[in-house]
Model the fold of this input.
Amino acid sequence: IEIGDGFSPWGFSYEDLTMGFLGIGYGVLQSEVPFFRNFAFKFSYWSNAIKSPANFTNDYDAMTVWLVTDINNLLPPSLDQYWPKFLRLAIGYGVGWGVTRREFAIGLDLNIESFTPCSDEMLLTQRVLNTFRLPLPTVKMTAGKGPVWYMAHLK
Done:
């Protein structure tokens, strides 16, 4: 992506390249240190505009990146019975519609992989779907506005 940005009006960004390397490093860290498997990144996308051709990789206004946490795995054994394995806590970051205004969100998330698959194909489907955050209850805080509650937050 950073090579493409270098040839675009936005230009190359050391910050973007650094974040790309940090993301790769985090994936390696997750594979080597089991504790970090309790935290994962997810993605949600909802665009108000119909774009042709669809270019969701550049439509930053319509996407939110989420850090999800397996609360159940982090609780002491005496308390983990009170938090369902399939329910996660999610913290999201995005920008406002049409303006560069930061938006933070906190909400619930489903760990689709916590449900026992009936086949290898179903396990693959679960893993792919688990990269996207489903519309669930969320509170969003936007710069210059008060918190807004959503029963099913899409963006």
Observations:
- Helices lie at 2-6, 14-32, 71-74, 120-129.
- The CA atoms of residues 21 and 55 lie 23 Å apart.
- The two ends are 22 Å apart (CA to CA).
